[in-house]
Amino acid sequence: MKKLSLRSIFILTMPTLVWVVGLLFSNIWWQENILSVTAIPFLFYCLALIFTLFLRNTLQFTFGLPFIFLWGYIHPLDNSKSLSQCPQTLKVFQYNLRYENPSLDPLFYYLQQYPQHLLVFQETTPEHGSMLKEALKTQYPYQFGGQPRVGYPSGQLVLSQYPLFNMKTIATQAGHQIIHGIWHPPTHDPIELYTAHPPSPRSEQLWTERNALLKTLNHLVEDYIGTDNASPAQIIVGDFNLSSTSERYQTLFGGFNSQPVSSWPNWSGLRQYLTISIDHLWTHYPLEICEREALMNMEGSDHRPIVTYLTMQK
């Protein structure tokens, strides 16, 4: 039997150590982006284990096996279920449409087959918005986005079967918009609703603007949740362009619950373990997440739509 050398131990251990240390000190835009993609160490260990099998080194294979399970466990799945029972279910549908989306027909077909209670869209063009509002106005009569002097705040559109109250926008210094209001399903207590779509961190400037919006929203929620006017039930939803495996994600919205699922990129043939979770939804007790599911067969966007099943605890 071949030995497990110190060099082999070093090679197999170092990527995980570098990743963990990097996550704790990832305050550089490109570094944080790279470390958010857990598919990189996962693929490394897949290749390493294949190589050890080729060398017929059982000890190296056995030593490396826990690492691949670790990175597979960390990576978000297509479906996340936290409660086995979900009475009086509320369904929230969120979807980054993509500005260049050539056709919304798959979306219309899905919503006709599977009605939802709340729809939250990002990257909504005026053309998309007009089509959605007109085609869905009977089923979703309560709408925010597309009105004069409102437009589509940071490309967002909210459609609902149930009343929306006191809807307004809050702008960051860079001009990115947060939507805040009350969503009131008739069989539930009023729910504070926040939606946002910070920019993709493709450059240091956009990374800074994204982080500023996240910080603004975090402070807004924390300050508001303790006021007399705030409902205890809260939803924060949107495309946040922030991986769920990043250290920054873990620091957001203390006391809230979230169930990350893989949502980007939605490329044909791309395996789930090569995607990341950036389309999020957080809730605050007594509102709880039963299940979140990323839909696999919606074409037209580089994001997968996500359906979240919610329940209100007594």
Let me know the largest β-sheet.
Answer: 7 strands, mixed
- Based on DSSP secondary structure assignment, what is the total number of beta strands? 13
Radius of gyration (Å): 21 Å
* CATH structural class of the largest domain: Alpha Beta
Low-confidence stretches: none
- The span between the termini is 61 Å
Number of helices: 8
Structural class based on helices, strands and sheet pairing: alpha+beta
CATH architecture of the largest domain: 4-Layer Sandwich
Give the count of structural domains: 2
State the share of residues found in helices, binned by percent.
25-40%
- Assembly form of the protein: single chain
List SSEs in N-to-C order: HHHHEEHEHEEEEEHEHEEEE
Q: Would you give the CATH topology of the largest domain?
A: Deoxyribonuclease I, Chain A
Could you name the CATH homologous superfamily of the largest domain? Endonuclease/exonuclease/phosphatase
How large is the share of residues in beta strands? Answer: 15-25%
Instruction: Provide the residue-averaged pLDDT.
Output: 90
In the sheet with the most strands, the strands line up as 1-12-13-2-3-5-4
